[in-house]
Amino acid sequence: MECLYYDDVKLKYRGEVVDGQPHGHGTGYWEDGKTVWYEGVFVDGKPQTYELAQGDHPSNI
């Protein structure tokens, strides 16, 4: 389990990581670190389903 921070798009990620990218189960957070935008499976850094918790789907992950 790792945490990744994306300064350019102000997002945070906590979950499984392979080769420095989200891969496996994880949670994406908005910049406040509390509001979840996605929770589910990531493959090669991209969310695999549209299971948004709050807000719009970020396009620059």
TrEMBL record:
Alphabetized, the UniProt keywords read: Repeat
Q: Name one Pfam family in it.
A: MORN
Repeat recorded as keyword: yes
| The keyword Repeat belongs to this UniProt entry's keyword annotation | yes
Protein name listed in UniProt:
MORN motif-containing protein
Organism this protein belongs to = Tetzosporium hominis
Q: What is the lineage of its organism?
A: Bacteria, Bacillati, Bacillota, Bacilli, Bacillales
